[in-house]
Write a structure and sequence with these properties.
The chain is α+β, with helices and mostly antiparallel strands. The protein has 14 helices and 17 strands. Strand 13 and strand 14 form a beta hairpin. Helix 6 packs across helix 7 and helix 10 crosses helix 13.
Length: 361
């Protein structure tokens, strides 16, 4: 088992200096100095005291050198090198707390099988697992990274959509830590999901529970200050279920407002009048343009006020019959005949209410 220092008498640990590697958590040292009124104020970065005796026990860990080097190629470089770190057998780590290092070494000495943290079923455990994941990513210990990821996802599955304020706060704290400490990259220059799997998972979860998070201050702060999080959130967000004119509020001019309801009536030739097999909706379907990959929900819509139609949108861009029709996209203006090749009417029409493609004529 990893040995925690109990004293800083060099004589007692003389044998450790050759067989063990010493890890010092500089942030823990800095925090101890700040709490010690006799210590000088620490301003910008975590610095070690001049004397080893002033380093608190909780900031120092000892681990077998050979074990540490075997965990990953990255750690092997830290342990076996000709620089000060390798020669003296001391690694100074910033941005790692005692609980995270304890779990890391527990996993290392437990045959890379498992680790434990406090309150493993509580939302607060998300931050602990996320810190372990970040440390594993830092040292490229893939097995530990996968283990932490599985614990995070399993916990979120058990929690479902959080509701209590403290749970929402705990989730966002973990999400913020991940986006602040993990590398963000995508497989495309366009807006796409992050390739880092935990960032993508957190973005999906946040998007799914957006109604819960949108009023959380930490969520708003992260959205404002982290372009990576905003990008990931947009990538994982679905389009609005209804167009903006489905409930238009207008000023009547007499000190009140009126709602103009949208009636999704069929187009003038009833070409797109369908019934959804999933939700039962009957009306004009949404058309997917195979050319520009956009969805047109204006075709066949009628805006009404007090029962009177005041506008018909897009009806002139359709011609033909229900089984064979030509559609002109409102964005790219390209006309497509359905069915045409692989583009059948069933695969290019969607229910405007539930967005499924299980439509019948």
């Amino acid at each position: 088992m990893a040995t925690k220092s109990k004293t800083h008498n060099p004589t007692n640990f003389k044998f450790l200096h050759t067989d063990f590697f010493k890890i010092i958590l500089t942030d823990v040292v800095a925090q101890s100095n700040l709490e010690d009124k006799t210590s000088p104020t620490n301003t910008n970065r975590a610095t070690l005291p001049d004397t080893e005796a002033s380093i608190p026990d909780e900031a120092v860990f000892y681990v077998h050198r050979s074990l540490l080097a075997s965990l990953s190629a990255e750690l092997d470089k830290h342990v076996n090198n000709d620089m000060k770190e390798g020669i003296q057998g001391v690694m100074e780590l910033s941005e790692v707390d005692e609980a995270t290092m304890t779990a890391f070494l527990q996993w290392a000495y437990n045959l890379k099988d498992d680790y434990t943290i406090e309150n493993p079923k509580a939302t607060s455990a998300l931050l602990g697992h996320t810190k372990i994941y970040v440390l594993a990513d830092r040292f490229n210990t893939v097995a530990l990274k996968d283990l932490a990821y599985n614990k995070i996802t399993a916990l979120l599955v058990d929690l479902g959509m959080v509701a209590a304020a403290n749970d929402v706060e705990a989730v966002m704290t973990a999400v913020s830590y991940a986006f602040g400490n993990l590398p963000f990259s995508t497989s495309s220059t366009r807006i796409s999901a992050p390739t880092e799997k935990l960032l993508n998972y957190f973005a999906q979860y946040t998007s799914w529970a957006l109604d819960v998070f949108r009023t959380n201050l930490e969520f708003c702060s992260l959205l404002e200050n982290s372009p990576d999080f905003a990008r990931a959130l947009v990538t994982n967000s679905r389009s609005a279920a209804t167009p903006p004119w489905s409930s238009i509020i207008t000023d009547t001019g007499i000190g009140s407002t009126a709602t103009l309801d949208v009636c999704a009536i069929p187009d003038k030739d009833n070409i797109l009048c369908r019934q959804c097999g999933s939700c039962g909706y009957i009306g004009a379907a949404v058309v997917h343009c195979p050319q520009c990959n956009r969805y047109d929900c204006e075709t066949g819509d009628s805006i009404q006020s007090n029962g009177n139609a005041i506008a018909i949108l897009g009806a002139k861009r359709l011609s033909g019959t229900k089984t064979s029709y030509t559609y002109q996209c409102k964005w790219c203006a390209v006309s497509t005949t359905f069915p045409s090749g692989s583009y059948t009417h069933s695969s290019r029409l969607y229910c405007r209410k539930c967005l499924t493609s299980s439509l019948t004529i």
